[in-house]
Amino acid sequence: MPDAPAFCKWLEQSWVGGAVRESLWLFPAVETVHLIGMAVLLATIATMDLRLLGWILGRTSVSQIFRRLLPWSWTAFAMQVVTGMVLFSSEAVKVYDNPAFRLKMLLIVLAGFQVLIFERTVYRNVAQWDDGPPPARAKIAGGISLLLWIGIVAAGRFIGFV
């Protein structure tokens, strides 16, 4: 992306970037909301993935779990995007070149593709296996998702240390 460094510089110099960077309390407050969103997102995704793996909640249908948890997941993901952009704006130039940040963004994109593929293939036939043990393809999708989100969290933690 040829204009990414210029965009990062502009974002960092914006009033949002400056406010977050210069405020004593704003960065920690936004980061706290980011962490709360992360906890909710990971709890809901892990629950869905562990059910797909057949390790928990075997007496509850997959579709019922997904119906209950997806609104929470999407809300938490939206919180992550908004608070992540605010945090990024405070030091966008530095973070953009950070290998851990780039890995985190790559893993998020891969997780998005994984969800899309799962929804268009395996989950499309959920009525056939909803109340029983998930098929191998559902288990594989749950395992991949779980590994991707563990990687996203780990890469996110490493941003400040790389």
Which tags fit this structure?
162 residues, mainly alpha, 79% helix
Explain what the structure shows.
With 162 residues, this protein is an all-alpha fold. The protein has one domain (4-161). Helices cover 79% and strands 0% of the residues. It is built from 8 helices and no strands. The chain has helices spanning 4-13, 15-22, 26-52, 62-90, 92-96, 99-120, 126-129, 136-158. Helix 2 (15-22) crosses helix 4 and helix 3 runs antiparallel to helix 8 (136-158). It is elongated and about 55 Å long.
Strand content: under 5%
Radius of gyration: 18 Å
Structural class label: mainly alpha
Uncertain residue ranges: none
Helix content: over 70%
Overall shape: it is elongated
Major beta-sheet overview: none
Count the strands? 0
- The chain-level mean pLDDT equals 94
- Count the helices. How many? 8
Q: What is the ordering of alpha helices and beta strands?
A: HHHHHHHH
Oligomer: single chain
From the N-terminal CA to the C-terminal CA, the straight-line distance is 22 Å
Could you say how many structural domains there are in total?
A: 1
Summarize, please:
The protein has one domain. 79% of the residues lie in helices and 0% in strands.
Q: What is the strand and helix layout of this fold?
A:
Elements: H1 4-13, H2 15-22, H3 26-52, H4 62-90, H5 92-96, H6 99-120, H7 126-129, H8 136-158
Helix pairs in contact: 2-4, 3-4, 3-8, 6-8
